[in-house]
Amino acid sequence: MNPVLRPAAIAAIVLAVIAAAAALYVLHSILIPFVLAGLLSILFRPLVSKLRSWKFPMAVCLVVVMLIASGALWGIYTISAAGVSSAIEKAPVYQQRLADLNVQMNGMLQRMSFQMTGRSSALRWDTMLDMQTITSAATSTVGSVVSFLGDGFLVLLYLVFMISSSELFSKKLQAAAGSMGSMDLVQIYDTVNRKVLQYLRVKTLFNLVNGLIVWAVMAIFDVDFAPLVGLLAFLFHYIPNIGSFITTALPGAIALVQTGSFGHAALVVAILIVIQNVIGNVIEPKVMGQSLDLSPVVVLISLIFWGWMWGIVGMILSVPIMAVIQTILDAIPGTRPLAILMGGSAPRTEPVPNE
């Protein structure tokens, strides 16, 4: 067989990729809850397996999972609603503090012999929180909360069906694998579950720790919106690289506007940077190990692609999705070189025997 692809084959591949990307974009409102439910089903699978080993019926397992998932969803909604309500209530105060900060900054620049002329002199920070902006932001936030609750209900619905049919699906997969000659579907399924479960366990644990630390540091320094920013820190730390930057800069920005003290804001940011670097660069990699062997370049590209495709949720899901894709590619002999290129470590090579 000629290894060089014909133009028609190349065109077919390109069209298939374009069609798949278009489908992912158009069907995002259906696919995002489905993917989230799939990840949650993997996260809850050990709990369900343990309950089933104790002879609990599947109905009881579903009730336990729904109670945990619904409680988490309600907690997110409660913290978000309280934070948004507090932000709207304090917006006029923050607008005045921005005006004072604007005067302070202009004075500092003038003392440093900078002349605020032309466009620069028209830059006023206090206009960032005028009432029109506040109303628009509040409306957008309420819409996002309503959308989040709707998606959350759909995720729970998908989750019920996935968990209730998980045992039957495993049996079907084994039956299907029996008729497959070269590809072990059960092994692929187990590998995907193992990799994603390890990632979700470790990442969720450390995200929870990071969120609580951000909450605690902001509360200790009496910075506003500590619960809301702590929740955002928990969620945004699923986003590689960008998430830690956002959840470090945001508390500093709030502290700066609230107090008008650069030293106070810098201290908050410095403490968070030190703690998050220790957790993210020292402790977490040791615990995570090589559960997801993805190249940093692949992580960056997937972050950009899925962020463009599905927004913030896509950025959060980018790493697990790429881990699943890499595992599937690695199981197919024809696409195994692509899986090796996606890896973050050098592939193992067998030693060449001496003649």
Automatic annotation (TrEMBL):
<feature type="transmembrane region" description="Helical">
    <location>
        <begin position="227"/>
        <end position="250"/>
    </location>
</feature>
<keyword id="KW-0472">Membrane</keyword>
<feature type="transmembrane region" description="Helical">
    <location>
        <begin position="262"/>
        <end position="283"/>
    </location>
</feature>
<keyword id="KW-0812">Transmembrane</keyword>
<feature type="transmembrane region" description="Helical">
    <location>
        <begin position="56"/>
        <end position="77"/>
    </location>
</feature>
<feature type="transmembrane region" description="Helical">
    <location>
        <begin position="137"/>
        <end position="161"/>
    </location>
</feature>
<feature type="transmembrane region" description="Helical">
    <location>
        <begin position="12"/>
        <end position="44"/>
    </location>
</feature>
<protein>
    <recommendedName>
        <fullName>AI-2E family transporter</fullName>
    </recommendedName>
</protein>
<comment type="similarity">
    <text>Belongs to the autoinducer-2 exporter (AI-2E) (TC 2.A.86) family.</text>
</comment>
<dbReference type="GO" id="GO:0055085">
    <property type="term" value="P:transmembrane transport"/>
</dbReference>
<keyword id="KW-1133">Transmembrane helix</keyword>
<dbReference type="GO" id="GO:0016020">
    <property type="term" value="C:membrane"/>
</dbReference>
<feature type="transmembrane region" description="Helical">
    <location>
        <begin position="303"/>
        <end position="329"/>
    </location>
</feature>
<dbReference type="Pfam" id="PF01594">
    <property type="entry name" value="AI-2E_transport"/>
</dbReference>
<feature type="transmembrane region" description="Helical">
    <location>
        <begin position="204"/>
        <end position="221"/>
    </location>
</feature>
<dbReference type="InterPro" id="IPR002549">
    <property type="entry name" value="AI-2E-like"/>
</dbReference>
